[in-house]
Amino acid sequence: MVQWLRKNRTAVIAVALTLLFAVGNGILLLKDFYYLSLLPLAGLVLLLFVVRFETALLCMALLTPFAVNIAIVPGMELSMPVEPMMILFTLMFFFRVLASRSYDLRLLRHPVTLCLLASMLWMLVATCFSELPWVSFKYWLARLWFVVPFFFAAAQIFRDRTRIRQFFWCYAIGLIAVVALATAKTVGNFSDLQTLHRVMRPFYNDHTAYGCVIALFLPAAFYFIFSRNSRGWSRLFFLAIFALLVVGLFFSYCRAAWLSVLGAIGVYFLIHMGMKVKWMVLLFGLGVGVFFVYQSDVLYKLGKNHQDSSYDLAGQIKSISNISTDASNLERLNRWASAIRMWKEDPVTGCGPGTYQFLYAGYQRSYQLSTISTNAGNLGNAHSEYIGPMTEQGIPGVALVVAIFMTTFATGVRVYRTAKDKQVANTALAFTLSLLTYYIHGMFNNFLDTDKLSVPFWAFTAVIVALDVYSEKLKIENR
Fold it and tell me: Which of 52, 301, 321, 475 has the fewest Cβ atoms within 10 angstroms?
């Protein structure tokens, strides 16, 4: 018996600890110490973060689609269970870097990283001048535990390119489960648009965020179907996942998400034809300029459109340009107008990161209110990834946001055109197009203050940086 115990010592210890956990947990639950019963699980998570750092990142990606907001203390919510894990991961990352004094300086010197660091620094400066300093500081801290794990740590982890694929599918598996559940709830409710906008709850609070994250995953999911690592049954599996994402995107009834995918497809053809990034930017700037020159005529024609949002596809598409009766479009214009009025009062440092939704009510005008307008500050923010930072952080804030987006896009296109390894090139293009869907969607909504979009967004940005730093390039890089 003693000899057998020695031979199977590891298994015996595992069984003993499991029984101890089960008994202890049962006693705590019987005594109504519900929170204390989570301590063993917390210890297990802590052990995972210490001995399996990369696995911890993948676990957070897998759990993020299932996370729900829970009020920890009055006035403060955390996305459970992932945000506490992000905080722990961030602390562990700083400890590991300081203890080993090792972080790849090539990543720190990369233009995308420099833009991100400058953005974080300016956000902290804007916090010092905020009208609600405590709100802004909490907002800055949340951004910190989003970017540290999923950009700074992930960029090093993605040196091993198999980790890119693993991270993508960890989040995608969770997302697919939510899509399948939401699609099942959609059946039988096709005539009720308001119900269709809520079928993704409680995992995604809004159909726009739900559609946005699906759009973000579509280009990369399409690439993995035809990747040389996908063969036989795995290719059919990836094809099925892609098809389910397409179905989810359609039934999200998110017009901005539909437009973002179409925009990414259009840019793909421009890249494929060899157009330089500077000409793409110039073409976009020309389009914006033409709009402002002829804005009176454009707005007049848009004002004659009275097609509201509809469960009917044709009606939903027509409603995109309805700025006369569509409540969603009218409310977006109201938020933008309020944001611009706020920005004019402090164009340099803004009103403070994360404060717009608490302050904009007094800047609304009665003639711009829609049927869904509110003064409570509980229905989202400025509805723009560009106007929002401009209002909350001033001109430097939005300039740095645009710099991050443009630098990442330019880096992705350059890697696609100069990487020696064709698989690296195609991976860079796929994730660049995925990020592009968010850049386009960001004109109509902003979600980088949530874990649901921040996790894949910053991770995909880290993919581009890692591929640029760690892949071999062709000698000619000025194409």
Answer: 475
